[in-house]
Amino acid sequence: GDANLRWLVQEAFAAPLPSSWSEHTDEEGRVYFFNHVSQESSWSHPMDSVFKEVIEIVKAARRGGGGGSGASARAAEAVQAHLEAVHARALEQLEGWSGPYVSEAG
User: Fold this and answer.
1) Is 11 left (phi over 0), alpha (psi -120 to 50) or beta?
2) Which pLDDT score is estimated for 40?
3) In the predicted model, what is the mean pLDDT of residues 35-61?
4) How far apart are CA 16 and CA 46, in angstroms?
5) Rounded to 5, what percent of the chain is helix, strand, coil?
6) Are 20 and 37 within 8 A, CB to CB?
7) CA-CA 20 to 30 A from 105: which of 27, 36, 53, 68?
8) pTM over 0.90
């Protein structure tokens, strides 16, 4: 069942922010996240979507695998492939970005 995915949920809660993100609290005490590269803010942790996708991949691998150690190996391979795709997308988004720059004025 989903009970053995608890470790993944715990990982999601403990996940550090990517280096271009920072965590803030608004005047009402709500936590939000700010991306210094895109200058956008979000109520969701920037890694939430990645963890949700990984959970779905693991569930799909389990459904299609019929169980056993082969299912675990297929799930691990699927997760690795997905994380590599996410990394490639992140690199594409950073393409063309450069900086930070320090001015002579300070």
Assistant:
1) alpha
2) 93
3) 85
4) 10
5) 55, 10, 35
6) yes
7) 36
8) no
